[in-house]
Amino acid sequence: MLGGGGSTGNAWLIGVVAGLADAGVDVTADLTVGTSAGSTAAAQLAGATPAELYAAALVPPPVRTAGPGRADDRTRQAAEQMARTAALVAGARDAGDMRRRIGAAALALPASSDESARARWRATVAARLPSPSWPQRPVLLTVVDARTGEPVVLDRHSGVDLVDAVAASCASAFAYRIGDEWYVDGGYRRGENADLAAGSRRVLVLAPFGGRTRAPRAWGLHLAAQVDELRARGSAVEVVVPGAAADHLFGPQAMDLTLRPEAARAGHARGAALAERVAAFWD
């Protein structure tokens, strides 16, 4: 289960899997569920080795000192987006109402109806994926219907291109259109969506945001509730989170591309440190 976490979260996820692999622990699973940044990681890991992806994550991005794409600009935009959505969460009656409010707000953004913005985002996502094709092994990517607020799970049988599925799962800044449907970030269902592994004997959850949620705990969207649900149905569950030392890599900073190498190294160190424990669980 690969949770959401922005650009740094994606790098951290890749780092964890690479750190485990370098320690001799292969966590290739019968089912992979990806949410937001985790959907990108799920598609990447299905088409390239952890070592290849880790090496790519360590390459610093070009430094932009002016114009869109600057690190401070992306962080500011992420902070503004978090503030807007926090207000929507605070005004919602329940999880379904929250998703409908989030979807309506996203649909109202100018970028949602801007086909050039959609095309640029799709091209960005496509450039990150080793292959545009769905893997044969089961991979589930989470999204939320922007018009109804209903959670949706996409896979290779959904009739949706992998690139579009990943782009929709990561659509936190605007609603992403696929055909006649509009979607927003799958993290609005749940940050990790670990409950989609119900019935599995073992479930490994990699959670860049550490299981935190901005929704009231009574709604049951937080990771601890998901883990309780899985265990109640007989699954053994292991959770890996970044730890306090890596907190500065997430939050609004999660969209800072310059932090990706540091996040990847932090993930690799975490995977290597927990390799023995994960191996005992996974085997």
From TrEMBL:
Pfam families: Patatin. InterPro entries: Acyl_Trfase/lysoPLipase, PNPLA_dom. It comes from the Bacteria. Keywords: Lipid metabolism. Residues 2-197 form the PNPLA domain. This is Patatin-like phospholipase family protein.
